Amino acid sequence: MSRDDTRTAFDGLPDPAAPTLPIAAAKAKQYGSNGQQGGATAPSDIRCEHAKPDPLGLGEREFGLDDTAIPPRAWLLGNVFCRRFVSSLVGPGGAGKTALRLAQLLSLAVGRSLTGEHVFEQCRVLIVSLEDDADELRRRMRAAMMHHKITPEELVGWLWIVTPAAEGWKLAGTANGVHVEQELTARIEHTIDARRIDVVSLDPFVKAHSVDENANNAVDFVVSILTRIAVKHDCAVDIPHHVSKGAAAPGNADRARGGSAVIDGVRLAYTLWPMSEKEAESFGIDEHERRLLVRMDSAKVNLAPPGTGTCWFKLIGVRIGNTSDLYPNGDDVQTVEPWAPPATWGGASYAQLNEILSDIDQGLPGGAFFSNLPRVGDRAAHLVVQKHLPDKTEGQAREIIKTWIKNRVLNYVEYQDPDKRKPRKGLRLDPTKRPG
Fold first, then answer.
1. Which pLDDT band, with edges at 50, 70 and 90, does 91 fall under?
2. Is 304 exposed, middle or buried (0-12, 13-18, 19+ CB in 10 A)?
3. What share of the chain is helix, strand, coil (3-state, %, to 5)?
């Protein structure tokens, strides 16, 4: 669907108070010219095509008389950005939120996916960086462009950036206890119209306003402004957001910083967290690589069915070549690329791996424990892997167990087999590395 098509998708809907001709004709035929059908009187709200709406009413539409086509939701990038809705990516500082969002927004500007999500249409993008200055934002953009082989010419007419932090502009503030719109709101709306923007990102949300971020009525006022902008200008609005301090919580949007009205008000929320040590051990990932891997989870996507799982990304350092006599190495700047677990682990979710480890730790009903040694019959640990991951071969399943043993997630312990009445060695889970 083109932008012009989307903007006029609701044009031509019938007057809320007047049925369309086919339905009006059908009703007239059903009840007859005198409005009677078997002694019954036609419903009082069945009006002729010339009836006018009540000027003092709500402009309500009688849904039973509306036979016009309903346009599909105007998704732009996967289930991440959608016209007329507000989205957010929630995560701790340093997790790569900005790097991921810039790559996703570049995907829309060039019309091809850089992060794995489907691009529905090429879009005009406005990036409003409220934390970085112009030079830092340009470094970040250049790193993503170099890594994903994007030329400046591809972005002409499709991408605009601005760093208004120094101007002090805000979407809203509070004066004498009253929340009011401020200058940034009007300037963004003007730019959206002037540049025909399809998606605008304000990063981070906390810098976009000056209201009390812990007061729900205050942040709800700000989110309502953004929702109005999205609907009025038929564009997607994105507000990356920080989390409060505490343990990692992938998929939990309630960890977002400040009042809950922020996440309550958006329709498309995702979380971004670094890979945990337990996840790295489960996937057989060493500590150096673990620090470069982040997971994106759907936290609140109530416009589409639940997703199939976690999306992984790898943080990549890119030397952007901005050398000088004083800094001969230039800058190494972060961007992202999609990442998938090694082939042996492909298709295995963290939840499934947790279930496998729990079953192995529990052992067999008779009291025996599993083993990865050959010729152990029904005590073979790879059978547990294949039970939860039936697409894995015996070799792949054994490799998964072998990796867990190598990383000391699973350890051999001596025990007395109650069935065979003899000592044996079996696999148990390290108590410090239990799933959870």
1. confident
2. middle
3. 35, 20, 45
The CA-to-CA distance between both ends of the chain, in Å, stands at 44
Closest by CA position to 404, among listed 319, 314, 285, 269:
285
Q: What's the count of helices (H) and strands (E) in the chain, helices before strands?
A: 13, 18
Instruction: Report the predicted TM-score, pTM, of the whole model to 2 decimal places.
Output: 0.72
| Full set of structural domains in the chain with CATH | 3-65 (no CATH), 75-340 (3.40.50.300), 350-433 (1.10.10)
Residue position matching structure tokens 């936290």: 299
Within 13 Å of residue 349, how many CA atoms lie on the same side as its CB? 11
Element (H, E) at 405: helix 394-406
DSSP letter string over 240-282? Answer: -EEB-SSS--TT-GGGBSS-THHHHH-SEEEEEEEPPHHHHHH
Asked if residue 124 lies in contact with residue 106, where contact means CB atoms within 8 angstroms, the answer is: no
Tell me what percent of the residues of the chain surpass a pLDDT of 90: 56
* Residue type present at position 56: L
Distance CA 339, CA 108 (A): 20
Provide the CA 126 distance to its chain's centre, in angstroms.
19
Q: Which residues contact 203 (CB under 8 A, 6 or more apart)?
A: 97, 98, 101, 127, 128, 129, 130, 131, 238, 239, 240
Confirm if 131 and 208 have CB atoms less than 8 A apart: no
Cβ contact 371:379 at 8 Å: yes
Looking at residue 213, what is its pLDDT? Answer: 86
- Counted residue by residue, the chain has a size of 436
Cα(210)–Cα(216) distance, rounded to whole angstroms? 13
Instruction: Give the angle 331-111-145 at the CA atoms, nearest 5°.
Output: 10
Which residue has better confidence, 91 or 301? 91
d(CA 70, CA 259): 35
- Neighbour count for residue 429 (Cβ, 10 Å): 17
Specify whether the CB–CB gap between 279 and 98 falls below 8 A.
Answer: no
